[in-house]
Amino acid sequence: MRRFLPWFAVKVRARSEKLIASILEYKGYTTFVPSYRTQKVWTDRVVDAELPLFPGYLFCQVDPHSYWLPILQTPGAKSFVSFGGVLAEVDRLEIEALQVAMRSGRQLQPWPYLRAGQRVVVEHGAFSGLEGLLLRTRGEDRLILSVTLLQRSVAVEIERCWVRPILPPRPLHSGAAISLQSGA
Hints:
This protein is mainly β. Helices cover 14% and strands 36% of the residues. The chain has 3 helices and 14 strands.
């Protein structure tokens, strides 16, 4: 039985994902840089471009118990994504889903990460401008609208592509001070 190596995310120098992946492949590693096609508008022309779906990252298969320092010694490779000093493995099924999407020939594009329970704003469709919570039940997305005073909510079916996340304001770092200066 063939054992598949796990996938890991490697943080790399921005706009160098494909170059670093090709160097790693030359070293014998299997890499994956999912990308999408877009058009860049310059002042004098429109240019077709292929950009990474995850700027600053590439995926690499590696045995976590082996000697993987050559990956980090590759120019432009910065670090593995890890938590508490432990390499964070990327779910194999998520990588396979991205690979299938890439092979499909369908148009891909980056999209904000949405999770059930997240506050979102609707940008398209009949509910444009509404805010609520995103809920997924029985394979369908719903926008939850609430009346806080009555402590009641309603759910309306929506398309996930209609919404974008409402990002919480960034907290100030502890000990940070804000100073306002007047013009003198």
